[in-house]
């Protein structure tokens, strides 16, 4: 789609606003830096300032944070296995996403933060890496970046694309611009027919959009045996163990209240607690100590002790292993309107899952799991606590949920194969 006067006007207004807001980005990085020290580093990448280029051409994949990196991992590994000659640059926005990229691929891929969506930074990014293919995960719709790829002839695929009804409404002020940007994309590979339809409503042409399924079903869960073996050496068999995973600041008191209620009936109950963001690790530990409970952490004690009541998982990349150590999981981000987190991970690791009501980021997955009987969706924190206790007490019900969840994950696979088939022919030809 070529530029038109309306596009120039909309893009000019959008870019002018972003340039005016650039000073605020410095304040934002400083503010985030006081909470997460990593935000004080690598500012040059945020504004697309790089060392001199070596002239190599890349396949570019963007995954905003940890969840998207994990969703993309199997796809990247499959494409790299089939085309080891290609060089990849993977961008994220968050430091935790950056750490996950390095944990998965080390120096085998290049990695930088995605720059802000102002024309100068976009042009420097695209000019430096010269991608001949752009793969964008889920819902990262940055108009100047999409237009910049169009202007340079770079095919763009939005993969594992999702767009909730809530997010669609959120685009209403920018719909005219975002719709035009969407129409420059080669293909939107949506997670579901509902997502596909919402992308069309946002402005994509129907012939651009496919529903290929959700890559999260095709995750390769880690072997739980080493984690289970270490856990079993320190935690007595038969102890009630539950995990509060990916919790946010506003949910932390609710988790404390749930554990307090459980300890009244189950004095041996052990809570494994994995806050979503690293800046909350120490604060959660302090909150637990205020209750007078016995606390251990992954960094200091490595494992729960015999008298540990709360074990804080203050590391990254180990959540799925600890899911396997728990009988029941509360998945956070769901007691507040955050939208939830990946519910397939506990299911894949054999853990019964409980969640709050705010699941707009995982609406299709939560609906399927709930209808199948693999998930308990609760109206509030009190109901979550009751569901956790019920599942800890009821071995039969818990094992039924676990079996259904594992089967649902297994039956949902296939998006990876379909996505590889879509992308493989579009990779640049091998050099001779």
Major beta sheet summary: 7 strands, parallel
What fraction of the residues are assigned to beta strands by DSSP? 5-15%
Please, what is the CATH homologous superfamily of the largest domain?
A: 3-Deoxy-D-manno-octulosonic-acid transferase, N-terminal domain
- Strand order across the largest sheet: 3-2-1-4-5-6-7
CATH topology of the largest domain: Rossmann fold
What integer value in Å does the Rg equal? 23 Å
Distance between the termini: 33 Å
> What helical percentage do the residues reach?
40-55%
What is the overall pLDDT average? Answer: 94
Total separate domains:
2
Low-confidence stretches: none
Oligomer: single chain
Return the structural class: alpha/beta
- Tell me, what is the CATH class of the largest domain? Alpha Beta
Principal-axis shape:
globular
Instruction: Figure out the total of helices.
Output: 18
The tally of strands reads 14
How is this structure best described in words?
By secondary structure, this protein is an alpha/beta fold. The protein has 2 domains: 5-213 and 414-426, 3-Layer(aba) Sandwich (Rossmann fold); 225-411, 3-Layer(aba) Sandwich (Rossmann fold), CATH 3.40.50.2000. The chain is 46% helix and 15% strand. The protein is built from 18 helices and 14 strands. The strands form 2 sheets. A 7-stranded parallel beta sheet has the order 3-2-1-4-5-6-7, sandwiched between helices. α6 runs parallel beside α8 and α11 packs parallel to α16 (381-393).
């Amino acid at each position: 789609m070529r530029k038109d006067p309306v596009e120039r006007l909309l893009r000019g207004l959008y870019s002018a606003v972003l340039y005016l807001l650039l000073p605020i980005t410095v304040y934002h990085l400083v503010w985030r830096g006081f909470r997460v020290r990593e935000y004080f580093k690598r500012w040059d990448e945020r504004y697309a300032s790089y060392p001199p280029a070596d002239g190599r051409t890349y396949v570019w994949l963007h995954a905003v944070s940890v969840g998207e990196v994990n969703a993309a991992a199997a796809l990247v590994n499959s494409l790299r296995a089939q085309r080891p000659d290609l060089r990849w640059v993977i961008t994220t926005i968050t430091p935790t996403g950056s750490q996950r990229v390095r944990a998965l691929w080390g120096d085998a891929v290049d990695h930088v933060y995605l720059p802000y969506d102002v024309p100068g930074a976009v042009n420097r990014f695209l000019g430096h890496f010269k991608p001949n293919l752009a793969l964008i995960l889920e819902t990262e719709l940055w108009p100047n970046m999409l237009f910049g790829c169009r202007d340079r002839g770079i095919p763009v695929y939005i993969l594992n694309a999702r767009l909730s009804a809530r997010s669609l409404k959120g685009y209403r002020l920018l719909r005219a611009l975002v719709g035009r940007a969407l129409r420059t994309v080669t293909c939107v590979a949506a997670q579901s027919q509902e997502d596909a339809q919402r992308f069309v409503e946002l402005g994509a042409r129907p012939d651009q959009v496919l529903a290929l399924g959700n890559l999260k079903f095709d995750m390769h869960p880690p072997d739980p045996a080493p984690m289970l073996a270490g856990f079993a050496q320190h935690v007595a068999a038969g102890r009630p163990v539950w995990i509060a995973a990916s919790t946010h600041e506003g949910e932390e008191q609710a988790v404390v209240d749930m554990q307090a209620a459980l300890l009244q009936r189950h004095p041996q109950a052990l809570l494994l607690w994995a806050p979503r963001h690293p800046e909350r690790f120490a604060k959660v530990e302090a909150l637990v100590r205020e209750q007078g409970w016995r606390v251990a952490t992954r960094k200091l004690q490595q494992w729960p002790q015999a008298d540990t009541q709360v074990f804080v998982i203050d590391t990254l990349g180990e959540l799925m292993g600890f899911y396997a150590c728990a009988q029941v999981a509360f998945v956070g981000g769901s007691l507040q309107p955050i939208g939830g987190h990946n519910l397939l991970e506990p299911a894949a690791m054999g853990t019964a899952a409980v969640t709050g009501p705010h699941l707009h980021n995982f609406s299709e997955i939560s609906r399927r799991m709930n209808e199948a009987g693999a998930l308990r969706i609760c109206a509030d924190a009190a109901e979550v606590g009751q569901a956790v206790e019920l599942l800890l007490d009821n071995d039969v019900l818990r094992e039924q949920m676990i079996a259904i969840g594992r089967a649902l994950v297994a039956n949902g696979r296939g998006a990876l194969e379909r996505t590889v088939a879509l992308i493989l022919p579009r990779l640049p030809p091998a050099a001779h």
